[in-house]
Amino acid sequence: MKNNPYQTYPNEAFWSRAVSRNYEPRDLIRTRIPLIRCLDNVISAGSCFASNLVPFLEKSGLKYLKTEVRHPAFADVAAENFGYDSFSAAYGNIYTVRQLLQLLRRAFGRFNPAEAYWASDEGFVDPYRPGLKYQARSVVEFEALTKKHLACVKSALLKADVFVLTLGLTEAWQSKVDGAVFPACPGTVAGVFDPSIHDFHNFTVTEISSDLDDFIEEIRAENPSIRFLITVSPVPLVATAVDDQHVLCASTYSKSVLRVVAQGAANKHQNVTYFPAYEIVTGPQAPDAYFEADRRRVSEQAVAEVMTALLSHCEGGGGIRNKGVPAEESSVSQLISEAECEETMIDRSDPKTS
Amino acid sequence: METERMRVGGSFLLAGHSHARALGLPPEISTGKPRVAAIPGVDGAVGLVGLVDRNSEYWDALIDNAGGKTVLLLYGGNQHLGRFLLAPDPIFDFYLSDHPEIQVDQSAVLIPEAMVRDLLNLPNANLSNTLSRLRKVGGCDPVVLGTPPPKGDDEAVRSLLSKETHFVRAAEMRGIDLREVLLSPRMLRYKLWLIIQSLLGEAAEAEGCKFISVPAGAMDEAGFLKRTYWQLDVTHANEAYGALMWDHIRDSLEQMR
Fold it and tell me: If you count Cβ atoms within 10 Å of the first and of the last residue's Cβ in chain A, which end, N or C, has fewer?
């Protein structure tokens, strides 16, 4: 055999030695330093899958930073919808990078969307958090609550040492007026769809890469030492709005774009690490049981596998030694993946998903 | 006043929680089944006496005795003080959509009014069901009554705290001295009371029942319970308030006819 470069590569570079045999999810990432240290303030954002990670981070002994928490005197009332309470601030699911960039710019007072609220019989709906259970009952209250929320977002962004970002979707509905993107199509969770002011957009690799670059640079202008762990959600699309596209093909395109963007950011920026949750859950090596029967919802077993792999690269091993998920986390995971996702509201007319 | 009260007439059944005491409902019993008792000094009015815990037996008894009666229901009305008379940590405040003129403490944690309403409505879970059942009783006219406004004199309220088992226990659990305890801002208590009145009115309206709010004469200029109507505890009103309410009930029902 002639000498060739592959002869010097480690086992992980070869499918036969690292996947067909000896597969270990933690080996998918190679790092000499902990991804998250014990004293790091960790924040997270992203799609539904991102909220699955939060209970594990909180239980692992790492510091999951929450700047917007419910007042303890109100513990007896029902929890917020759609996991708004799950994240570092109550921004809920953030499906697209444009939505994330928009949130950053709103928090730092650099963007005010033209569609500030939607009036309804129940109150004033936040188009950017349309599923909020506790809606404002007056415009003045809406403005005050939004101001408070954005201050909490800003505080989280400024205090964070590590940002765990899960990229979820490329497809979004946006305002024709100022390009503001909505987490859910107007008219699905709340509001009314108006084709004269709302339209669909499927973001490209170039657009999302640009948005992510802007996000990283703008946040680092305020918080220079923040580090990023970027993942791609393995959860397929609920539905696509792309003409003549099968949802499976649209989902593959979307995840492919996001995977390229994530790698591009990791290659381009210091202290930006891609964490292969997507590969762990969707790769050919993944067991059938990593998806539920609908082949969309990621199982608790899969989430546990991802988090075990991630936390094994964190200081102290993250505290999760067993791959089994505690009952409490199981229910949280299932709740979130099954019901607490604005995206699923697109398909609520289908009895199988509603 | 006694003569006027005798003219109330009609066929009233007074029921509900502790604020009914000011209107003459006899004290709670410690054992036994709910029973109907006369309301002293009010002609044609009886009250449903029961255990302190108004359990399902009490509400069933109310339904059983409501036929042909105007049922005057005092439901809850202490939840704002039970939860928040002692200052919550941190202090919170909220916008009140029905009273935009009331200021919000900008240094306090802002809570959605909708969340405050949900919390204060928790004890009302059985109210709608009770009203619905009463509406189905022949000849029954259910009327929900407003509950007394909060007391606005903090020092006087503080002096009464030690007489209340609930607050003594709450203070013990929090390891605080009732003599020095921080009370919630009185405007917060007032706003919470306003929400409770809204919730009672909405529950009545939703079931097609009447709601009679507290008369303006019971309140001082700031909306707090006038000192002359204080029962000597933290939350309740006295017999004079009860007399005022009976007159107000009579007038209100006449106007509603």
Answer: N
